[in-house]
Amino acid sequence: MTHDDCTPEPVLKARQLTRSFGDGEARTVAVNHAALDLYAGQVVLLMGPSGSGKSTLLAVLSGLLRPDAGQVLALGQDLWALSDKERERFRLQHCGFVFQGYNLFAALTARQQLEMVVRWGEGASARDARRRTDEVLELLGLAKKADLYPADLSGGEKQRVAIGRALIKNPKFCFADEPTSALDWHTGEHVIEQLRNAARDRGATVLVVAHDARIIPYADRVFYMEDGCLRETEDEAQVRELVLRQHTNVPHAGDLAELH
Ligand SMILES: Nc1ncnc2c1ncn2[C@@H]1O[C@H](COP(=O)(O)OP(=O)(O)OP(=O)(O)O)[C@@H](O)[C@H]1O
Ligand SMILES: [Mg+2]
C-alpha cells in the first residue's frame, strides 16, 4: 500500500515475524511470517483457535519475547535491535498490558496495584496517583473494592484491576490478552468500551485477543490467526462463522483460504 499525505503512518509495523518453540519432532511454529501495520486510535481484534499463536504474537509485538526472525518497528524504533534495558524502558513508557493470567501482586490491594504504576512509572505525587487511581477504579466499577487484595477479589474483578493497571498510564499501546474471558457479557462489554475510549479519546493503539464474536462490532479491524499464520479480514460474517466453528469443533482446514 502506498501512503499519500492524508494516510497516517503506522505506529507499529511488523514484518516477517517468526517464532517457534522446541526442536525436531516437537517443534511448533507458533508465529509464521506474520506481518501487520497498526495505527493510532484503533482497536484491533485478534481471533483464532487455542494454540494458533495469538499470545506468542502479542508477546513478540510488545517486546516481551524475542522472535527467531523478523522486525517490529514501534514508534519508529526497531524494538528487537534495542538493548534489553532500552526495550524495557520502551515498554514501561509506552505499553499497557493485560495478561491472560492477570499477573497481579498478591501483597497489594486493588488501589495499590494501580497507584504503583503512576508513582513508580511516572514519578507522580501520592495525591495525583490516588486521584487518577480512584477515577479508573470508579470507571471500571471497582470503587468499593479498592482496599481488597487479589485473593479476596472475584476472577472478573481481578481482570478489571489488571485492565485498570494497563489503562491508568494512558499508554500509546495496550496489549490485552483475553481481557474479557472471566467476565459476564455486560461487564465485558463495559471493559471493551473502556479500551475503545482509550483508542478514540487518547489515541491509543489497542490490540485485543478475544474468543467472543460479540466483540467484533467494537473493533476497527479484525485479524484471524490459524497455525501461526495471520490474516486480516474485512468480512465480519466469515470471522463469526470461523469462531462459531471453532467453538463447535467442526474441522476448519482451509478456512484461512476462504478469507481471501
Ligand atoms: N514457552 C513455550 N514452550 C513451548 N511451546 C510453546 C510455548 N509457548 C507457546 N507454545 C506453543 O506455541 C503455540 C501457540 O501458543 P499460544 O500460547 O501463542 O497460542 P494462543 O493462540 O494464545 O492459544 P490460547 O487461545 O489457548 O491462549 C502452541 O502450540 C503452544 O503450545
Ligand atoms: Mg493465548
Q: Could you explain how this protein is built, in words?
A:
There is one protein chain. Strands 6-7-8-3-9-10 form a 6-stranded mixed beta sheet, sandwiched between helices. The protein has a 4-stranded antiparallel beta sheet with strand order 2-1-4-5, with helices on one face. It is globular and about 50 Å long. Helices cover 37% and strands 23% of the residues. 38% of the residues are buried. The chain has one domain: Rossmann fold (3-Layer(aba) Sandwich), CATH 3.40.50. It is an alpha/beta fold and 260 residues long.
Summarize the structure.
Helices cover 37% and strands 23% of the residues. It has 260 residues and is an alpha/beta fold.
User: Proportion of β residues?
Assistant: 15-25%
Q: Indicate the CATH architecture.
A: 3-Layer(aba) Sandwich
Please identify the top-level CATH class. Answer: Alpha Beta
Integer average pLDDT: 89
Instruction: Quickly give the structural class.
Output: alpha/beta
Helix % is 25-40%
Fourth-tier CATH superfamily name: P-loop containing nucleotide triphosphate hydrolases
Structurally, the number of domains stands at 1
Q: Rg to the nearest angstrom?
A: 18 Å
Strand order of the largest sheet: 6-7-8-3-9-10
Largest sheet: 6 strands, mixed
Shape: globular
First-residue to last-residue Cα separation: 17 Å
Poorly predicted regions: 250-260
**SSE succession:** EEEHEEHEHHHEHEEEHH
